[in-house]
Design a protein that fits this description.
heterodimer; A: mainly alpha; ABC transporter involved in vitamin B12 uptake, BtuC; 15 helices; B: alpha/beta; Rossmann fold; four-stranded antiparallel beta sheet; 9 helices; 12 strands; globular
């Protein structure tokens, strides 16, 4: 079948192009900051050996963790978004719309506010993961099986509001003003001043989340035919749902624990990739992860380039771009939201 | 009758606190097309789901000598091709990929990497339902008739000994109703047990070997079309009279007036 191999070629070339884009953006990201370097200088500093010692310290010690985190977190957010959209068979699904990062942030904030751990402890991602899992689980319980778009989004809104209020309460009750300040900054979502300690804190969980989500790709494809048909084909839909939630919780929880809430990457990335690789939920996962990495790298480069008196947080930027995009999607999906056929 | 392949013994199903199937027992052989008819709400869809093991039921179901409850989900999937109402497809996947999902129970979880055996099964199914020309078209862009044939091809591709089809002819124009029934008839003739839910008594009488009549969650009649769709049963269950005649050695039955 000629056209089919054409589609497969298109997917392959898209993935290659996205990998190159991520590499290029990573090199730019390593070169951006008070001391600017061209991607070529960055390459030399990274792999050439010798050279300028100051440059090496800047690239390897200061900027490399930040760039690694941008790639890993962008990728897991894109992957989580694509997996959730596949699970709910719904192009408006994403972790941030369902309150998962907000809940994860609450888990982490609670730990800090109660003084249970400092910001570099493994207790932090642990709490974030548990809260992220509970939030998505609660969402699916509240919305019910086969829930429509509108119900999911309303339930997601409620859960993210609840998580936001709970976080505000924790800050409110926190006796130490410095703790409150630290929490506030961290909630805005940022990759600044992250060290390899942060990378070690997040990466294991992100990796576990990614492996869990990738393992379910074929079941997500079968789910395109609806839950009942998927079940009749041998997919255990109940466990699929739990496993995907678990994967999203690990990924998002691990990410939020070191960067705070960075929204909308998971919503946007799959949409950017569908025109290029098609709608198959299984084939969308890897491209969405790459698109997520590229988006977060680009956003994190932008916050360093945009001239401003104080630092713009990357989480603020992704929301500023993400919300209008979400509104555009709502406009496109109006018919489905209005209660018509999806 | 030949040896029963699919049997149910005292099957009961309770949904949301209400018993919707009561003590249904049946024994059906292969190489038969069975029409399952009954008024709205009689429990036809519930019976199909219960037979496929898609919802919890009391009683015993055996397929090919094995207890359904003892079979893994995947083993069940290999034995039942299940075609639900409405042929829902949530993403615009190419028609051929949808048919290829019929091979999922056989371990072919990726339509892009089918073994020659799986590929052959997909091709056979697409040929039988005449959908080969839609291979690369997104299923969501097909007409209702085309989509229902793709859905049927997906079920045929499972190559299961039993097909359970829930109103496969609903919302189809007359020509496609006939095409779909002919496909199912051909599947039955090739050795499959096909159980088809329908509201069309004419199609049931024309194509089925056995008609099962359901009312209020019970099986109230079962037999050859002429006996299961007798005037008494039509009056008592469907509350209609019927006009009967014959054509090409098949019974023609047309519901005529309410009673």
């Amino acid at each position: 079948m000629v056209t089919e191999s054409a589609a497969a070629k298109r997917r392959t070339s898209t993935i290659i192009a996205m990998v190159l884009l991520v590499v290029l953006l990573a090199l730019i990201s390593l070169g951006v900051g008070p001391v600017r370097m061209s991607p070529l200088t960055v390459l030399k500093t990274l792999f050439g050996g010798g050279g300028n010692d100051v440059y090496r310290v800047i690239v390897q010690e200061i900027r490399l963790p930040r760039t690694i985190l941008a790639v890993a977190i962008g990728a897991i957010l894109g992957l989580s978004g694509a997996a959730l959209q596949g699970l709910l068979r719904n192009p408006l699904a994403s972790p941030s719309l369902f309150g998962a990062p907000q809940a994860a942030a609450f888990g982490a904030v609670l730990v800090i506010a109660l003084g249970l751990a400092d910001v570099r402890s493994y207790v932090l991602p642990g709490a974030a993961i548990i809260m992220a899992f509970l939030s998505v689980f609660a969402l699916l319980v509240v919305a019910g099986r086969n829930a429509g778009l509108l119900i999911l989004i309303l339930a997601g809104l409620a859960i993210s509001s609840l998580a936001g209020s709970a976080t505000a309460l924790a800050m409110n009750l926190s006796s130490n003003p410095f703790v409150a300040l630290e929490i506030a900054f961290w909630l805005l979502g940022s990759l600044e001043d992250r060290s390899f300690r942060h990378v070690m804190l997040a990466l294991p969980f992100i990796t576990i989340g990614a492996i869990i989500l990738m393992s379910q790709r074929n079941a997500l494809r079968a789910l395109s035919l609806g839950e009942e048909t998927a079940q009749s084909l041998g997919v255990h839909v109940g466990s699929l749902r739990l496993i995907v939630i678990l994967g999203v919780a690990f990924g998002v929880g691990g990410a939020v624990a070191v960067t705070g809430t960075i929204g909308f990457i998971g919503l946007i990335a799959p949409h950017l990739m569908r025109p290029l690789v098609g709608y198959d939920p299984a084939r969308l996962l890897v491209p969405s992860a790459l698109a997520g990495a590229a988006l977060l790298l680009a956003a994190d480069i932008a916050v360093r380039i945009i001239p401003s008196t104080s630092d713009i947080k990357v989480g603020v930027l992704t929301s500023l771009i993400g919300v209008p995009f979400f509104l555009y999607l709502i406009m496109r999906e109006r018919r489905a939201l209005g209660g018509g056929v999806g | 009758m030949m040896d029963a392949f699919l049997t149910a013994h005292k099957l009961s199903v309770t949904l949301a606190g209400r018993e919707v199937l009561h003590d249904i027992s049946l024994a059906l052989p292969r190489q038969h097309l069975v029409a399952l008819v009954g008024p709205n709400g009689a429990g036809k869809t519930t019976l199909l789901r219960a037979l496929a093991g898609l919802l919890p039921a009391r009683g015993a179901i055996h397929i090919g000598g094995d207890a359904l409850s003892a079979l893994s989900l995947r083993e069940r999937a290999k034995r039942f091709g299940y075609l639900p109402q409405g042929h829902m497809v949530h993403w615009p996947l190419p028609a051929r990929d949808i048919v290829a999902l019929g091979r999922y129970p056989h371990g072919a979880t990726d339509p892009a990497r089918l073994s020659p055996t799986d590929e052959a099964a997909v091709e056979r199914a697409m040929l039988a339902t005449d959908v080969t020309q839609f291979s690369t078209r997104p299923a969501t862009e097909l007409s209702g008739g085309e989509r229902s044939r793709v859905a049927l091809a997906r079920v045929l591709a499972v190559e299961a000994p039993v097909i359970l089809a829930d109103e496969p002819t609903a919302a189809l124009d007359p020509r496609f109703q006939i095409e779909v029934m002919k496909n199912l008839r051909a599947a039955a003739d090739s050795g499959i047990l096909a159980i088809v839910v329908t509201h069309d008594l004419g199609l049931a009488a024309r194509y089925a070997d056995v008609v099962m009549v359901m009312q209020d969650g019970r099986l109230v009649a079962q037999g050859a079309p002429a006996e299961a769709l007798s005037d008494d049963i039509l009056a008592n269950v469907f509350r209609v009279t019927a006009y009967r005649t014959g054509h090409e050695h098949r019974m023609i039955i047309v519901p005529w007036a309410g009673v």
